[in-house]
Design goal:
Oligomer: heterodimer
CATH architecture of the largest domain in chain A: 3-Layer(aba) Sandwich
CATH architecture of chain B: Orthogonal Bundle
Largest interface: A-B, 30 and 33 residues
CATH superfamily of the largest domain in chain A: Periplasmic binding protein-like II
Number of domains of chain A: 2
CATH class of the largest domain in chain A: Alpha Beta
CATH topology of chain B: MetI-like fold
Number of domains of chain B: 1
Subcellular location (chain A): Periplasm
Strand content of chain B: under 5%
Number of helices of chain A: 22
Number of helices of chain B: 16
Order of helices and strands of chain B: HHHHHHHHHHHHHHHH
CATH class of chain B: Mainly Alpha
Shape of chain A: globular
Radius of gyration of chain A: 25 Å
InterPro entries (chain A): Bact_solute-bd_prot1, SBP
Helix content of chain A: 40-55%
Radius of gyration of chain B: 27 Å
Pfam families (chain A): SBP_bac_8
CATH superfamily of chain B: MetI-like
Organism (chain A): Paramylibacter kogurei
Distance between the termini of chain B: 38 Å
GO cellular component, one term (chain A): periplasmic space
């Protein structure tokens, strides 16, 4: 505790020394500061630290002080984000909702409990008191639609990611060179390359221990069905529904998916896919690359490009992005992208007595100064303005992983509603990732994301009753087919019939009507 | 043998004295409350020792029963337990119209049956074997080794199992490889889940479970063995004719408790070991409840599933107890 106080004192000191323009235009309340309570739990920053330099700067500018009252803080990092949801549920069960609630995966939560009265509807407040947020929505009505609950109200201000590209195909280009192969351009060539990785010993240790294709998250393996014109994940949430020309469907019932799975099963049987892909888990990339075993994967630009530093240990190590191989029909698709709006952000609790000040405070983070503060931290400490652009200081860039450092000073928080500025990331993205992004920029590989729908309570019931079971069944069959316990082509009709029996058609109708209502197709 | 003082009726004198004192202390017309008060005054130390357990029961087992009503309600965390509307048996209808829930019940029973058939005798056999070991330090070492896995957390156990059965680096597949066979990806094959799970359970708990039987064996009257030796019985006969019949009440009590826990497969280990590919055999009621109820926030449905589970367990333990009382006169209550 003493350490925390000391840190607070230090940070407070640094905030005071920050050159501040003599401006009161960001001030929201006059006189005594307004204290608002906040709940914010995230695996990387379990509570809202009042000592964060970003918070200190925001206090100075707005005269609004956020006070942490987080319930259920935890740092669990499972793929389903159960830790976040658990903290929110605990908070609600405790009966006391703070003035502000910020979290990842907050959308479904506020869209369910907002209409019941737990959170304040924001439409009118934004129109009247939040000119910057309103200006953003005026430009992006599709995102405004995506944020709304079934009753047409917005209950949270979202975190809006910037930048287009997320994951890409990566391949050991030094292995290609060693075997005299070209970067594969079609799925047939990709298969041939993976087979060569398996059989021709590119790592040169005399054993066929290479793992041609691997994935940190096994759903990334399923994404390979796009190589046969299938679809896997409709958004950056795994196994999500997809939207094509206004029609809701699911990837796992498409013909392309069937082809894809049958081919992936063949690849698996031939050893082209990591035999342990379903159980190896999140350390797969780290382990297989540093042991000089992994050949190709589908993973994030920035973090995967970073593994090229292994060239100091593994002679000639080069892991580069490649454009998506073309499907048999000639299409190149990169299914994953940065989603336009995350289901993350913050909301106003129903017991908040300063609703107008709070929405003004939310709006502050959409002003030029606020947005820069949320993205880059505090000027003079973490970044400096160079030619009108915020540039991180050398000391800050060298202080360890930049994302973590930013979180530690209270910037780039997913539980805060703000508009990300991709420039923050370019400054420290390594050359291999930048080169890859440029490669992807030259083609048009991205496809539209499904931005999600908000249900009425009747629709929610259909979804709750059917989707969990359907999803389990889909995944169960999917893994079985790939592992060779059953043949997708033989089982296909029975599989579709079983899904219908479990209520998939009913669910799709509900999804469609929710989608039409939300995105105004009616 | 020391001389015993007895009354005319053959009762030891001391007992008679105590009874007389008790009779004096309790005036005949006094109500039962006074008697109760006297009883507590005399035995309060024992009740003080019992108190923490009673408080634990009240706080952690009885108070939460209030929340069981959400199984019959359309529960919203915001509205709270009391203000959520009643919807009758709708959640139970949902449960029983769900194939996966029914399959989970089947899997639970199958895994528990295997556990009972293979897992229940294991600690008894182990205890009998330890009892026959004469070399003291060998016995102690062996006991320590088999007790150890009990103290390892499920997460570590799952890690050990996943590594041991890994198709590329696991010891099991390495051994299979010596015989020239192809490696098997055990943890993704539905038919292997139950043997691996039950085997892991036995490895982890058999040693620790043998303690209670060893204690029971230690309580057998040595004079029985002495007379058996005089009659010329060998060790095998002594085990069958003396040891096992003597510890049979303990075995039966443990069996009743075990049957009461049939619906409680150690689901944390299942969660750590299963995959969608093995749901077919691995998905038990509690993991189903965890996925459907807790991960997707349907607490009311989860409560209904849990209530059903508890009901089945209650019926099972009642039945087992009744049968045991009728046929062996050994019972929990």
């Amino acid at each position: 505790m003493r350490k925390l106080c000391l840190a607070a004192a230090l940070f407070a000191g640094s905030a005071i020394t920050t050159p501040v323009l003599a401006d009161d235009h960001l001030k929201i309340v006059e006189g005594d500061p307004l204290e608002l309570t906040i709940q914010m739990n995230h695996r990387a920053y379990p509570i809202y630290e009042e000592s964060w330099p970003v918070e200190q700067q925001a206090r100075q500018w707005t005269n609004v002080h956020l006070v942490d009252v987080t319930v259920g803080a935890n740092m669990r990092t499972d793929s389903e984000n159960t830790g976040n949801t658990e903290a929110l549920n605990l908070m609600l069960a405790s009966g006391a909702i703070p003035d502000i609630v910020g979290s990842s995966r907050i959308r479904d939560f506020v869209n369910q409990y907002g209409p019941e009265g737990a959170f304040v509807p924001l439409n009118d407040l934004i129109a009247e008191h939040a000119p910057n947020i309103a200006a953003y929505y005026a430009q992006r009505p599709d995102i405004e639609d995506a944020v709304k609950a079934a009753d047409g109200q917005m209950y949270y201000v979202p975190y809006l990611p910037d930048g287009k590209y997320g994951r890409a195909y990566w391949i050991r280009t030094d292995w290609l060179d060693a075997l005299g192969l070209e970067v594969p351009q079609t799925v047939e060539e990709y298969e041939a390359v993976l087979r060569a990785f398996k059989t021709q010993d590119p790592n040169g240790n005399g054993e066929a221990d290479e793992v041609p294709f691997f994935a940190r998250q096994w759903p990334e393996l399923i994404r390979l069905v796009t190589l046969w014109d299938g679809r896997a994940h409709g958004s950056d949430t795994y196994h999500d529904f997809l939207v094509e020309e206004g029609k809701i469907s699911h990837g796992y019932i498409g013909e392309g998916y069937r082809d894809g799975i049958s081919n992936l099963a063949r690849w698996y049987a031939e050893g082209l896919i990591d035999a342990e892909v379903f159980t190896r888990g999140s350390s797969a990339r780290d382990f297989l690359l540093s042991e000089n075993l992994g050949g190709s994967t589908h993973d994030w630009f920035a973090s995967t490009g970073g593994y090229n530093s292994l060239s100091s240990e593994i002679d000639g190590f080069e892991f580069r992005a490649m454009v998506p191989p073309a499907s048999p029909s000639g299409k190149r698709v990169e299914e994953h992208r940065r989603i336009l709006v995350k289901p993350d952000g913050w909301a106003i609790g129903h017991t908040n007595e300063n609703v107008v000040e709070t929405i003004k405070y939310f709006d502050f983070w959409f002003t030029e100064e606020g947005r820069r503060l949320a993205n880059f931290g505090v000027e003079g400490t973490h970044y400096n303005m160079v030619d009108g652009k915020p540039i991180f200081t050398e000391a800050f860039l060298n202080a360890g992983p930049v994302n973590r450092s930013l979180n530690q000073v209270g910037a780039q928080l997913q539980g805060r509603g703000y508009f990300q500025d991709y420039n923050y990331e370019i400054q420290w993205t390594n050359e291999f990732a930048l080169e890859g992004i440029e490669l992807y920029e030259q083609g048009d590989y991205l496809i539209p994301d499904f931005l999600g729908v908000a249900f009425t309570s009747d629709e929610q019931q259909v979804y709750d009753r059917t989707w969990g079971s359907i999803r389990d069944y889909m995944l169960e069959r999917q893994q079985s087919w790939i592992l060779g316990n059953g043949d997708v082509n033989a089982d296909w009709d029975a599989y579709l019939a079983k899904l219908d029996e479990m209520g998939l058609q009913e669910l799709l109708v509900v999804m469609q009507s929710a989608y039409d209502r939300q995105y105004g197709k009616n | 043998m020391a001389e015993e003082h007895t009354t005319a009726a053959g009762q030891p004198i001391q007992e008679a004295v105590i009874e007389a004192q008790e009779a004096q202390r309790m005036p005949p017309n006094d109500g039962r409350w006074t008697r109760l008060f006297d009883h507590f005054k005399r035995e309060w130390q024992i009740y003080a020792m019992l108190l923490p357990t009673i408080i634990w029961f009240l706080v952690f087992l009885y108070k939460p029963m209030y929340g069981l009503q959400i199984a019959f309600k359309d529960y919203s965390i915001f509205r709270g337990v009391a203000n959520s509307p009643w919807i009758g048996l709708e959640h139970f209808q949902t449960l029983f119209s769900n194939d996966q829930f029914l399959r989970a019940i089947g899997n639970t029973i199958k895994i528990s049956a295997l556990n009972l058939i293979f897992g229940f005798p294991a600690p008894i056999i182990l205890a009998l074997m330890f009892n026959e070991v004469l070399h003291a330090s060998y016995k102690r070492t062996a006991q320590t080794i088999v007790y150890l896995p009990h103290f390892i957390s499920s997460v570590i156990i799952a890690g050990i199992v996943i590594t041991a059965f890994s198709p590329t680096a696991g010891i099991v597949n390495t051994i299979i490889g010596w015989f020239g066979l192809d490696p098997v990806y055990f943890l993704t094959q539905p038919q292997w889940f139950r043997p691996i799970f039950v085997g892991t359970g036995i490895w982890q708990e058999a040693g620790f479970g043998s303690i209670v039987f060893l204690a029971a064996i230690a309580g057998v009257n040595p004079s029985l063995y002495e007379s058996a030796v005089v009659d010329g019985a060998n060790r095998w006969q002594m085990m069958w004719k003396i040891t096992i019949p003597s510890i049979l009440p303990t075995i039966l009590i443990m069996l009743i408790i075990r049957i009461g826990n049939v619906m409680e497969v150690s689901f944390e280990l299942v969660i750590l070991l299963y995959q969608p590919a093995t749901y077919e055999t691995a998905d038990v009621v509690n993991t189903w409840i965890y996925r459907q109820g807790l991960q997707s926030g349907q607490y009311d449905l989860a409560a209904a599933g849990g209530l059903f589970n508890a009901f089945v367990a209650f019926v099972l333990v009642m039945t087992a107890n009744t049968l045991s009382r009728r046929y062996s006169r050994t019972s929990l209550w």
